[in-house]
Amino acid sequence: MEDEKLYSGADKKIFSKLWQYGSPYLGKIMIIFVLVLVLSGIQICLPLITKKVVDNYMERSHLRLIRNDKSIEITNQHKSYRILTDQFIFIPSNILSKEEYLRLEEDSLIGPEKYILFKGDESVNLLKKYQLNITKTAQGVFIPYSEIPKISQDDIRILRSNDLKNVKLFALIYVGLLIFTFIFNYFQVIMMALVSENVLYDLRSDLTRHLMSLSLNFFNNNPIGRLVTRVTNDIDALRELFTDVLVYSGKDIITVIGIFIIMFRLSIKLSILVLGIIPLIFFMLYLFQKYAREAYGKVRLTLAKVNSFLSESISGISLVQVFNQEEKFKDDFGKINRDYYKANLYQLLIFSIFRPLIDILSYVTLGGIIYFGGKGVLRGEFSIGVLIAFISYIQMLFTPIFDFSEKYDIFQSAMASSERIFLLFQEDDKIPSQPNPKYPSITKGRVEVRNISFEYKKGEKVIDKVSFIVEPNESVAFVGATGAGKTTLINLLLRFYDPTEGEILIDGINIKDLDLKFLRNYFGLVLQDVFMFAGDIKYNIILNQEIEDNKMIEYSKYVNAHNFISKLKKQYREVISEGGSNLSTGQRQLISFARALTKEPRILILDEATSNIDSETEYLIQDAIKKIMKNRSSIAIAHRLSTIQNVDRIYVMHKGKIVESGTHTQLLAQKGYYFELYKFQYLRSDMEKIYGDEKRTKN
């Protein structure tokens, strides 16, 4: 099992390949992008609403300037805001720039007191009953903030009723925007989930289709668990990349840009203060990315070792217990588990340093804004609303930085998974199918093998210049010791592999020129180890083929499988447990015979189909074999020579070559390799039986 690894850095290529799956949903992605823009815009606007409410309706203070030529000159650019009297100039607190404020302060033209303006005759009449320091103007009366406590609460409500109405209005707008945010966010999440699930569905389907097209050689060289992980876990790892990283990262980038634009419009001084900490943030992110990458890699590598060890240990638990290796395996796992524990602690250490540092940096920035912003408010450089807005923007600015560690972890995992997925797509170990295949005019079932050779590894021949012919409706068998090449020969016939030399013809056509599906429909295959799929007996017989139930039952009766199936509680709907453990070996074999017949093959292949059969069903198996071999070509592979004595021809294989051929009687008469096999299997057992009988007689 290969170790887990970090992605190699080919991000652009990976994103380009992912985009191939995302491009069919471009319309939905554009809608998501628009929704993200709207959400970011609303989020940026909320502090501005707070500022407007505070400055215009809650704390609408004015500064009083001594009127002279200099103060008039300085405030000329604010003519639309200033209010003139004979002695004074009143101007809103948040209008003057820092430079203007300092020039006025330098000549003592600006007073420390702030004033509030009340408009309308009703307000003037209401204030007459109080002894207040009032300055009357054409636009209304100005009262120092220090005089406000002298006015009763009821009168304050009357005087500021218009302000209260506006505060309520903007509060409703604020709540309305939050509701819109919820609605837009809901649709954005739903649409992003739909897009991501569609992309993952397409990717998973294509990857499975690609795997199914690869040759048997590929599956022999790659553990099944690894391939299952690619199709399941690795593709699932991309879900969070779409839903949590890409969308929210895009939203964060737009929000951060928008925040800085707004902050610079509100106050250049405070914005520069915030901008000054950006290099430090980037430096911290760089360090975190460097060390977190290393920590993440260690966790993934050690986790892969844990999974591999557990998978191997559980699969071989019977051997572990038989050889009393429980303690040894416990110690070995303890070492691997300790490494995984240390790797996780190291990763936690990196994260535990990064997040508090960002917290401290955010607090320092916030403290700096409060200090310098507070001084600016007291000097009249900007309003309280501006300071409150900056505090909100600082909190918004640090939110994506706080989330960076989590998003980085997801990103690393997704990129590593993506790379492994697309590397699997690059596997091209396929059996090629002709674009313009040939088809035989009549399907007779004649097999001709011409001088074929095959090697799994270069220079190591498993099949060496083998030739034979199977005539239509003829039955042949291949025998030989383990490793002689019998099963490999069957794999070549079914074109799981292509021979390195020679050719194989079916009904006069080279199998390389036949359509691959058509070729394999020629054959009915019964294996030594019968594989049972998850599902019921019916599914395991027909395997998604269009076959009527009565036809399926007819096949089952023909091979003696119906007898035991009909006695089951749900009969053909009986669910088979994992691996077919609720059926006997013989019952599984009978089901495999029925499965082979559903294709109505011209050529039947029996790969040691009678091995490991219990005595109670052996007769049924032998009877089924005779029936299904009738009126079709058949090729049998056997170790038990008793099962193939009646075939038309027997081929004896040794070290990848056919060394003898003939009928059972002819081969025995030759007293060659077949005779030796027969002698070892039968004469020895007969002698032991005779010797045992004689010994019992003497006793």
TrEMBL record:
From the Swiss-Prot or TrEMBL record, state where the protein is found: Cell membrane
**Boundaries of each ABC transmembrane type-1 domain copy?**
31-413
One Pfam family per UniProt: ABC_membrane
Task: Provide the primary localization.
Answer: membrane
Give the ABC transporter domain ranges: 447-680
Q: Name one GO molecular function term.
A: ATP hydrolysis activity
Membrane-spanning regions, if any? 25-50, 169-195, 245-263, 270-288, 348-372, 384-402
SMART domains from the UniProt entry: AAA
Q: Name one cellular component (GO) term.
A: plasma membrane
Which Gene3D superfamilies does its entry note? ABC transporter type 1, transmembrane domain, P-loop containing nucleotide triphosphate hydrolases
The record's keywords, sorted A to Z, are:
ATP-binding, Membrane, Nucleotide-binding, Transmembrane, Transmembrane helix
Give the bilayer topology.
Multi-pass membrane protein
UniProt xrefs under PANTHER family: ATP-BINDING CASSETTE SUB-FAMILY B MEMBER 10, MITOCHONDRIAL (PTHR43394:SF1), ATP-DEPENDENT PERMEASE MDL1, MITOCHONDRIAL (PTHR43394)
Q: What is the name listed in the Swiss-Prot or TrEMBL entry for this protein?
A: ABC transporter ATP-binding protein
Organism from which the protein derives:
Candidatus Infernicultor aquiphilus
